[in-house]
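User: What would this chain look like folded?
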Amino acid sequence: MYVYAIDATAYQATILKMPIHGGTSVPFVQTGVNNTMFNALATDGVNLFWAFDGTPSMNWADAGIYKMALTGGAPTQIASASTAGNTGNIGTDGSYVYYFESGSPATFARVALGGGTPQPIASANQGNVQNVSRPIRFDDHCVYWSDTFVSAYRRIP
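Assistant: Here's the prediction, encoded as structure tokens.
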């Protein structure tokens, strides 16, 4: 078992993995491109999911939500971002990946684990999701997030 973390000190977007009982961290995913950043991580126990700002040389067209098997392999984009550099705070309930995307209005959306068309769940007019800065949580009935703009917790069945 491993622990996964974003290396915020790297000039190139990097996700590290380290054995859960300690040891040396090693790169798990790297863009190899300067001025790039990963924003958030989530796992379903099989795949690692992350939000990616996009690549400057691609005019941020590759921004979005990605996944890669915990056993390794190639990353796969499962959702595109409509605005570069503004995806984050992701979570998974085992069927979907939920994430926030800034914009006017900001959007709280979900996409199937295998990818597809993102499904908007809420917008800024339904909870000011552009100000979310806390992790997404789940139970058997709802998805929860905190809205720091109005100092409130939100939920949707």
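Residues 2-156 form a domain with the Neuraminidase fold (CATH 2.120.10.30). If you want, I can go into more detail on any region.
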